[in-house]
Every structure is written in structure tokens, then in C-alpha cells.
Amino acid sequence: MTAITDQIQAQLRALPVPLALQLPSGEQLGAEQPEVTLRLRQASQLATLAQGRLGDLGAAIVEGEVDFIGPVRALMAAAAAMLPASPVAQRVGRWAQVMAHLHSVAHHTLARDAQQIEFHYDLSDAFYALWLDPRRVYSCAYFNDTGLTLAQAQEAKLDHICRKLQLRPGERFLDVGAGWGGLLLFAAEHYGVQAQGITLSHHQLAYVQQLIEDKGLGGRVTMSLCDYRELQVDQPFDKIASVGMVEHVGRAQLGAYFATIARLLRPGGMLLNHGITAASADNMQLDAGFGDFIEKYIFPGGELLHISTQLHELSRSGLEMVDTENLRPHYARTLWAWSDALEAQLDAALRVLQQQSDAERAAKSLRAYRLYLAGSAMGFERGWMALHQILAIRPDGALDSGTMRGAQSGYPFNRSYMYR
Description:
Elements lengths: L1 H12 L5 E4 L5 E3 L5 E5 L4 H6 L3 H9 L3 E4 L2 H11 L11 H14 L2 H12 L3 H7 L18 H15 L7 E5 L5 H10 L2 E6 L2 H13 L6 E5 L11 E7 L10 H11 E14 L11 H8 L9 H10 L3 E7 L1 H16 L2 H9 L4 H23 L3 E9 L27
GO molecular function: methyltransferase activity
InterPro entries: CFA/CMAS (IPR050723), CMAS (IPR003333), SAM-dependent_MTases_sf (IPR029063)
Family: Belongs to the CFA/CMAS family.
């Protein structure tokens, strides 16, 4: 234990924030006047810290085996400095890739996907409302001006998507994984489309259907409980958006996902696919235990794939990528805004969660989300993950369309139309 203690002491002295460890014996290591304190209930947790298994440390915090005192931003700064290497540096061999594929097949059946979505999104509408913007947009905002509030940046993101898709009044628009209806309703109200949304969350379905009724949009907007693989329509859509959905699809189903979207999209139509992507093409998930933490406590069944993998499967489906934009720093700022909002009302958040479950489970959920939001913000800030918007078309084969000859869709020859 002395060797590990000496190693930990050296690590603590090198941290960018003063941090103290309180051992089960009562001994304290590290800073005398700490900004952050970790109270360990088991001496074996020192080895976890020494090995840089910070995902395991996060799990111990969630389970109540380690207490942390102090601001979560400071905890994340310390955690990043304690990593022995980047969590995206590890490469995996062929056997690990095969096992990851088999895991993906098993975890992305229709029934498992529905259960996994309910696990996350049906936690508590009121809980999410505490730290999301008023539209409850649970995806990366677009800070096209540094002075924007979170609510303004989320509206800018919705408008950015609608502009990229060139939405027009009367067009048939599908929102795959429509969440709490932010994009679905924005597109109908501001761009005049006939909008259809699908979700696997019972809570989100009820919430959006009530919004549709309240806003008097029943003739132009519909929302249904449906897996994208089972959606059947009489007429294909002009435009499709999928925002924050592809992370739940899984490697094994990615080809079928894009093929389904191609089937639902009319020739010449456009797709906007917005989702988190892996920073490295060579690993299956974040190392240092981060991936396991997210799988267990936040997004069971979630898989992050590199942008090259997504583009490969998109192309195989017959869709053509015409524009790709990385919004990684925008997501770091979005997540910090969510984290700060949650940290500012922890007591209220705990009360809300206790209305849905027993006190112990509510406390665990709150600890998990505190670490998840701040840890994800840190990860996007440091480039451990990315966020890509892919704009794609389904070519219609038409070569004789005046000035747009060869475009085979309504996509212009430059990006200027996307910006005011």
C-alpha cells in the first residue's frame, strides 16, 4: 500500500486543482485546503485511482462507495489530469471487433432498443426540464454567436437544420427520434411543413401530443410510438432529420438504419443526420472505464461510431453525402450549460427524482447524471468525442435540370444558402 500511496501523493501534487483524499483509516492525502475532496470507503479504491480507471471511480461515486465534495468542474479538471493516457488512444484487435459486433447484434433488437430508450428518456420529464432549455432540446446546440444563451443556441440549431434541409411549406418532413418535439414543432411553425415524428419513449410521446393539441397543430403535425425499422408510409418524405438518434442504432444495425431512411426518402430528397461520433476509428468505446460507465448508468446499448464508418454505410445505402459539419466544441459548451444548470438546483432535482423512485435510486440517478454531464463536457472539450451533422441526398437520376444540371436533387452548388 505504501508504494501506491506514494504514487497517489505524487499524482495529487501535480494536479491543476487542490484535491484531497480521505482514506477509510481517517488519514488524508493531498491538499491541506482542497477545492475537491474524495472520501474513500475502501482502501482498494486507491489502486483504482493509481491505475487511472476513472470510470470505475465514477461508478463508485454513483454507488455511494466514494463521496466527493466540491464543484464538479474542479473534479473533472482533476480527473483529466490523472489519466495515464488519452482514453481514445487504445487500438483494438480483430477479435475485439468481432465481439463488439456480436454485442451490437444482441443489444439492438426491437425489444431491447425500446427498453434501453425507456431506461434513459423515461427517467423523469420534470428532471430533464430542470436543466434543458424551455423547448427541451436534448442534443448539441449551435452557438453561431458567442453571446447566445442556451435557449437561443438551441433555437439557432433548429433553424440551422431546417435551413440545411431547405424546408418548404407543404413538404412532408420526418423527424426520427423526435424527443420532446423541439425540431418537429419548430419546423411546422416556422417552415410550414407537414411534420411526422416517431419515438420509443412513452413519456415523450404523451408530452409532444399534448403540445400539438395546445398549439393547434393537429392538422399538420403527428407523433407516434414507432421504431424506425417498422415505419411504413404510403408516400415517401421530402426531407428527413435524425437528431441524437444514430448513437442508439448500433454498429450491427447501421447499414439497415441508413437503408431504411433511403427507403423512406423520395428521390431527390434530403437527410440531415446529427449525432455523436467516436474520435478514433480504431477503438470501440472510450477507455479508462468511461465507456463502461456510460453503458451501465446512462445509455445502455449506446455505441459511438467514427464518422468514416457512418459515411461508409450511408454510401452503401444509396445516399450521397453532400455536406458534413463537426460541431464538437458546440457540444462541449452545451453540456457545460446543462451541467451548470443541474448543479445550481441539486436539491430540486433530488426531490423530482424521488417522486419517480425510492430515495436510494433517486440519489444514485442524480450522482450519475452529475458525472455524465460534466464528464461528457470534458470529453468533447478535449476531443475524446465529436458531433457531426451529415447532410445527404437520395439522387433522383435527373441530369437535365437547368442550372442545377447533375445535382440530382435540390441541393445547391454551394453552402451560402445555409446562412443568413
